[in-house]
């Protein structure tokens, strides 16, 4: 028992200053999401919540392709963190988008009645799209400032996420939607 407490105390600093997730596969993300879309960020605004304790950033996406659910032409995605009046709140594992960036987003309704959607599984449902000069398109949801907990072995490691071709991600999503 004493050894367990000692190990827990060693792990606490990592957990206090970083975001740690249990990894989810594409299929689980698809099942947990009401919407899966490919979109392009067109604008972002940040604002305080009602009791002025948290900053939320709202990013509007132009939907280019719907992979699950019925999405309108634009969706608004809410994320914790952002900058308002020179004050910045940053959350490890949350990647804010810049206008023009493209992503495959696994989304679900926000628990706040603001009409926005939230990313499923924090950064796990946010696959940034990258086009290579060779004409290939890749997606990745890895984040350098986040960690994952591996149930087998109980270790905490840097969250590498998944990197794959866009076509492979779309195929996996389509198969998961059919099930």
In short:
With 179 residues, the protein is of the alpha+beta class. The protein has helices at 2-17, 26-32, 166-178, and strands at 19-21, 35-48, 55-68, 74-80, 82-84, 87-89, 102-109, 117-119, 126-131, 137-140, 146-150, 155-158, 163-165.
Structure description:
The chain has three helices and 13 strands. The protein has one domain: OB fold (Dihydrolipoamide Acetyltransferase, E2P). A hairpin with a 7-residue loop joins β7 and β8 (117-119). The protein is globular, with a radius of gyration of 17 Å. Helix content is 20%, strand content 43%. The chain has 179 residues and is α+β, with helices and mostly antiparallel strands. The chain has helices at 2-17, 26-32, 166-178, and strands at residues 19-21, 35-48, 55-68, 74-80, 82-84, 87-89, 102-109, 117-119, 126-131, 137-140, 146-150, 155-158, 163-165. The strands form three sheets. Strands 2, 3, 4, 7, 8, 9, 10 and 13 form an eight-stranded antiparallel sheet that branches. Strands 1-11-12 form a three-stranded mixed sheet, with helices on one face.
